[in-house]
Design goal:
The strands form two sheets. The chain has a ten-stranded mixed β-sheet with strand order 3-2-1-4-5-12-9-6-7-8, sandwiched between helices. A two-stranded antiparallel ribbon has the order 10-11. The chain has about 270 residues and is of the alpha/beta class. The chain has ten helices and twelve strands. Helices cover about 40% and strands about 25% of the residues.
Length: about 270
């Protein structure tokens, strides 16, 4: 994965996102595309704020973004990785989706649960995942390391989404010590997990297939238990959902894993 798109936003998890992007760039001498979006849209469309007040607010936002950029660029220079910087004003989600068209992977942070604070990562994961063609790496809160060489886990249900996620992440899965293909037992028909194992084997990926009984648990809970028991360093799965006009609707399993994962989560729709 040569082009790593990094969402830049001055929040409490930014340092961890930057480190994950650096780790990915070092795998194959990759390039980090830093995308910084000044969220000025709410002020621009507010007809009740005076023009002078709006301009002052936007100037303050740009000044803060400039300081964040200087700090991150200084860090990237110390890490000796390649990067470029792209600054925009407007919608964060729409900009990230547009800029991700030629990205191999997009790095964002897990949104906080409950009321949003100023230093929380933006709650953008669902919209970005469902509208970009690149796999999206969701970095959990407090996680600043991506163990590419350890065990990985692929959540499998035979669907087009899970197959798509597997194909897009083969370059990472090829580096894993082992890929655990986990299928939580349900009544949904699909391609057998052994077919996924055969596909990965052709790419030189060692893997094991697990039929994981739900035992009355929600699928998301069963998958997280499997991650823990198999000691997987990250989880790959297909993202399910659709969009109604401007409202993004995520499937229950996808939404719950985005909120509760404790390991890096790679999603593809």
């Amino acid at each position: 994965m040569k082009t790593i798109m990094l969402h830049v936003h001055d929040d409490a998890e930014q340092s961890n996102r930057v480190q994950i992007a650096i780790d990915l760039a070092r795998l194959e001498h990759g390039h980090i595309a830093c995308v910084q979006v000044a969220a000025v849209e709410p002020y621009v469309v507010d007809p009740y704020s005076g023009l002078f007040g709006i301009a002052a607010i936007i100037d303050t936002i740009h000044d803060q973004d400039k300081l964040a950029r200087q700090a991150i660029e200084a860090r990237l220079r110390r890490e000796d990785v390649e990067w470029d910087w792209r600054c925009f004003d407007g919608s964060v989600v729409e900009t990230l989706i547009t800029q991700s068209r030629l990205a191999d992977i997009v790095v964002v942070s897990q949104p906080a649960i409950g009321r949003q604070a100023a230093d929380h990562p933006l709650p953008i994961v669902g919209d970005v995942v469902l509208h970009t063609s690149a796999p999206v790496l969701v970095v959990p809160s407090g996680v600043g390391r991506f163990d590419v060489d350890g065990a990985a886990m692929l959540a499998w249900n035979g669907s087009a989404e899970s197959a798509h996620a597997m194909r897009l992440t083969v370059p990472l899965l090829q580096r894993a010590a082992c890929v655990h293909i986990v299928e939580v037992t349900d009544d949904t028909p699909g391609m057998p997990a052994n077919d996924a194992a055969t596909y990965l084997a052709r790419h030189g990926v060692p893997c094991e297939v697990h039929d994981w009984p739900a035992k009355g648990r929600r699928t998301s809970v069963a998958l997280l238990h499997a991650v823990a028991e198999l000691d997987a360093g990250y989880l790959v799965m297909g993202a399910y959902g659709h969009s109604r006009l401007r409202e993004t609707v995520l499937g229950g399993v996808t939404r719950e894993l985005i909120q509760s994962t404790t390991v890096p989560l790679l999603l593809a729709h």
